[in-house]
Amino acid sequence: MRCPSRRVNTGLMRIPDGLSWLQDEPTGASWLAELPRTVEQVAERWDLELGDPFADSSVAWVAPARREGEPVVVKVQWPHPECEHEAAALAVWAGDGAIELLGHDPERHALLLERCTPGTHLAHDPGVDAIGIMASLLPRLWKPSGEPFQTLEDEAQGWRGSVVRAWNAAGRPCERRLVDAARTLLADLSTTQGEQVLVHQDLHGDNVLASQRSPWLAIDPKPLIGEREFSCAPIIRSFEFGHSEQHVTGRLDRLSAQLGLDRERVRGWAVAQTVAWSFSSAYAPMHFATARWLLDA
Fold it and tell me: Which listed residue, 1, 10, 148, 233, has the most CB atoms within 10 A of its CB?
């Protein structure tokens, strides 16, 4: 994407429609009100020429930029738990399988990032073997690590404790057996894990971009420390790669076999995280269908 060579005009700075929902969040409205000033400070700190923000951003203000003539991306995050250690994860990966972190401003929750060119989303490229690409990326991201990352065990216990409440709050949109299955799996899997590595818990087709430096690179990590089997869950439920029982079980079988993973643990994590993440999703009915297919797989 070509970036206009100009400084941001904070008085006229466009806020993407995808961020408008934050007006109703307890800290979202104040963050949005401060965003133009924050962007101005970040641009000045890193001497950036900013382009218009990407329209599909929903939890961060993200825009193409140039620094000393070189293309980059600047990201100002709405502070929330899932993004807390994004910069740390990118630092651990150091550009191996993921975009490079070029700068970090913790006070302003801002990241300066490598810009992928051409930047095509894997989900939007039907001419490639998407699951094969995902299978080649995952081992590069499985780095030994520890602090400051949240553990999968703790995260899973949190999901287990909240999933019934979330189901009730959403109006009980699926049968109770999915909720009960998720709770059982979360209890069983979280305390019996294998080797702990850094995992990207949201590696779907829109979080992998085409790049000249490396054919495909992961973006937007929501990092956890956990077993490898868990990291297949978001790929298996990625309906952009096909949404049918055959597609879902095919992804389960292929990823498990190609990566030498325990199929039953992969299946269990895919059911558990899919259900736990479904109740606030616009795609909840599709996720419920995925969970049903996986329970019978």
Answer: 233
Catalytic site includes residue 154: no
Summarised one tens digit per residue, pLDDT across range 169-219 is 999 999 999 999 999 999 999 999 999 999 999 999 999 999 999 999 999
Q: At what angle do helices 263-278 and 284-295 cross, to 10 degrees?
A: 150
Region of 102 please: left (phi>0), alpha (psi -120 to 50) or beta. Answer: alpha
Instruction: Tell me how far apart the alpha carbons of residues 221 and 266 are, in angstroms, rounded to a whole number.
Output: 19
Token pair listed for 118: 């051409």
Tokens of residue 189, six digits = 């899997």
Helices (H), 142-262: 152-169, 176-190, 233-236, 245-259
pTM higher than 0.90, yes or no? yes
Lay out the sheet containing 101-105: strands in order across.
48-50, 60-67, 70-77, 110-114, 101-105
Catalytic annotation, pick one of 125, 202, 206, 296? 202
DSSP-based three-state secondary structure for 226? strand
